[in-house]
Amino acid sequence: MAGFVLVHGSWHGGWCFDPVAEILRARGHLVDAPTLPGMGGTAQEMAAVTLAGWGDFAAQHCRSMKDRLGGGPVVLAGHSRGGLVVSTAAERDPAAMDALVYICAMMLPDGLSRAEFKQMEGPNPAFDAIIRKVHDGVATEIDTAHAGEVFAQISPPEAVTSVLPRLLAEPHGPRSEKIHVTPERWGRLPRTYVECTQDRTIPIASQRKMQQFSPGARVVTLDADHSPYLSRPVELADALEAAIPA
Known about the structure:
Layout: E1 3-7, H1 18-26, E2 30-32, H2 43-47, H3 51-68, E3 74-79, H4 82-92, E4 99-103, H5 114-121, H6 125-129, E5 131-134, E6 139-142, H7 144-151, H8 157-163, E7 170-171, H9 173-176, E8 191-196, H10 204-213, E9 218-222, H11 228-231, H12 233-242
Parallel strand pairs: 1-2, 1-3, 3-4, 4-8, 8-9
Antiparallel strand pairs: 5-6, 6-7
Helix pairs in contact: 1-12, 3-4
């Protein structure tokens, strides 16, 4: 038995992992998929969000999970922007978890922000077109009428239809914060990168660029869109389970 703490990506909540969490629980594991503080909140609440705060939040969930397991192994996984949270949590408290998984996620090297990496990626017109600023730029929202073809174009249509109305406003601040990771803390934990070859949000070229920037991760390749928890839930559960340290 192992424990999994799953961190959602931008505009989502912990509910996006429901299909994968169900599979992992059926296999005898414990799963915690919280929604990050501030998501969909007031302008003031979202303006107060920091990567450090999100990292501490995720690390606390890992510590709680480890207590429930009596010290057993805990895997911290993040999807998309959730990778920033995973890295921050691991740097702040590497003893709280035993392995890291990045699911088509931001696995950035020390000193680089998500916003800076976005500039390196180049244009992504379809993705950029569905994002709109709210609260004077404090947050962003998604055009749900067109998000499915960018986030989940090969996922089951009924699953996509049920998820899109639940998307939330996303605090913008963490995207501009530089990641801080060190070999002694974040770098001491085993890492898995789950790359998704049909991703239209973080294209496979960008995913592989991040793998080059931060070498050393075990790589699992899925024929999936940006929502592998919908399009390939069994395969994603397999990848998460394979990340449990021996």
